[in-house]
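Can't paste images in this forum, so I'm doing it all in text. The chain is below; anyone willing to post the predicted structure tokens underneath?
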Amino acid sequence: MGPLVCGLLTSGSIYSATAQDTAHVVVVATTDVHGRAYHWDYLNDREAPLGLTRVATVVDSLRARYMGQVILIDAGDLIQGNPFAAYFATERAIDPHPVVDALNAVGYDVATPGNHEFDFGVATFQRAMSGAAFPIVSANLYRLPRDTLVFPPYVTLHRDGVQVGLTGFTTPGVMVWNGQKLADRVLVRRPLPMVDRALRGLEAEGADLRIVIAHSGMSAPASYDTTGVGLENEAARLAELPVPPHLVIVGHTHRHFADSVINGVHFVQPTQWARSVAVAHVWLVRERGPTGSVQGADNRPFRVVRIEGEEISLAGVSPHPLVAQRLERAHQSVRLWVLTPLARISGFWSAQYARASDSPIIDFVNEVQRRTTGADLSATAAFNTTARFGPGAVRLSDVAAIYPYENTLRAIRIDGAALKEYLEQAAAYFRTFGQGDQIVNDSIPGYNFDIVSGVDYVIDLAQPVGSRIRQLVSGGRLVQPTDSFTLALNSYRQEGGGGFDMLRGLPVVYDHEENIRDLLADWIRRADPLVTEDYFTPSWRIVPAAAAEAVRNAFGPPEAVTPQAALVPVDSVTPAFAGPDTARPERPTPVVPVAHLKLPLKRSDKEHALGRLIADGYRNGARTQFALVLNQTIQGDVPAGPVARSDLAAAFGEVEPLVRLAVTGQVVFEALELVVASGTPIAHVAGLEVWYDPARTVGRRVRRVQFPDGQEVRQRESYTIALAASVAGGADALAAFAGAQPEAAGLTNLEALLSYLPRLRQPVEAPESVRFHSVR
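Text version of the structure:
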């Protein structure tokens, strides 16, 4: 455990127990994870101080300290933004998506989608979200053409006797940035009316604590034309609603603050890329009468009396070994992918000064775009000033560094007047020279400084914004307002993203839905080796000379790099925002449903849905790669509808501890041979699929065992498996596990199911696909 976590758990400012009429809920949140499931920097191939593997360590510490009081939330932008995310979206789709599986392993309670969830299309979004072992809420995502909500608008969880209602929303800017991908399939409505309706619903249902998960900034201006779409950043306006939330988890803008208060509503925003978690402690008391007398029994509502927010950095926190082990195979697959050489280059192309002067690495991107589309001109930005090619091998990780987005390539027709207006807006990235110490306008993201190839031009920083582009020349003559060009650019910019409204609506002359990063990688393979002269033609510069020098100095001395800089774009920028322990008396516990089942779950002498669901619960609760449940340990059916603890307890013959074993693939095969020895499987599994031949000799029936992603379980490799203690070494033991040393998983078989079911989308639908396949 890292020192910051230890400090948190011993802090005198945090109450660890409450009186009978008080409660304490601990809300923990991440946002804008952008594929950082594992603690690794894939661009530089080294460990990084981030990742859901580190989040798991902090969350486990908090859950141990505040048992039954913690709610873990994510505010979106999960499955896009680094090579890990790109690999499992474009190269090897598996279920569950490894980023979502990481959230399952950490034990998230609820999440709301972000705008980048749609970068790979609606089908990829739906497939990834379907693997979540926790509810996803959204008040403003609608499915077309039925005009129905994609997810429930809100969910109610119970912590420390408190009804916690959670709703969420996604910034409507996604309709601009990914409009074509969502067309006729998904509509993102203006959020505030939808959230207002959800909050009123939560109040009517008696929620004591109301939380909004906002994938939206506080109040910064939108980076697009909001006409017909809605504001990009309006989380702050939640404080103005008639039924306001008590707490808002803010995302989207890649800012961070521990606790900001507007009209009594608390706002927290953790750092992006799973670099920190936000923690909000909420204290509540039960309502009392005018004289202070108790109004009724334990069903009295709670009232929020105090909220304190803080941010915990993950820089000093160790990765959780079990979560890391669960992700290890996925991690190594991505490493192998990004480190594969594509070509060689004898020179050295760097993006360090690509925003200060023309550079080969940016001209290469523009030339690939221009030659692919056949356009006259091409535009791109220097998204990552730490990107570089060579000398030596150029790898996919290098391409991902120079082009981290999932944009597709398009070309438009543009006249000379709009071209100049476009370049003028790009030049607003700089301040006027001589009017302050900083030459770069840090309120404008660097990805909004576009560079155009195919014309020559000068940026005069002695002039005010809007009057800086001089000597705009094409083919040796000044560009006239009526001149016509074709311009290659990315889909985000073509749709007006970044506030470039002059481009939105211009005629599209090329759109083959080609991913730009893929085009760059393919071009590099074919061009091997890369030669600077094939791509680089200096075409733009900054004047006066002193201004050009100031811009160059803004990006540091040569070789000064920041390895983690700017891989994932910020969609806009918002300004920075700035009791004693008491014993807990016993009190009656009301019978509260823990989940709702869509269909009854019945036992049988064959593989069945209830067994698969229990196995999934074991695997997630113990955080292992596999799980195994013997049929004979499942003693009861579970009815459809509301399911209470007692209903789930009846499903087990005995409530017993779960254990975790580390075994070789050979032991897994031996155990599965015993499972299918009778010809019909006598157990259920999670995390793997089994093919067997019941006609073969006992002990030789298992033909193949593989992960859900299709990779085979190897006899000599080591794996972790969860199972009940009796199966590991008691009366029900499978002989194959006799030599393994069991490790306590820290929960019972019943507790695993109790913690797993509420996180699934309600009503719960048990897994339908069989996991044992007879080849006869």
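DSSP finds 20 helices and 39 strands in the chain. Confidence is low (pLDDT under 50) at residues 1-19, 293-297, 559-591.
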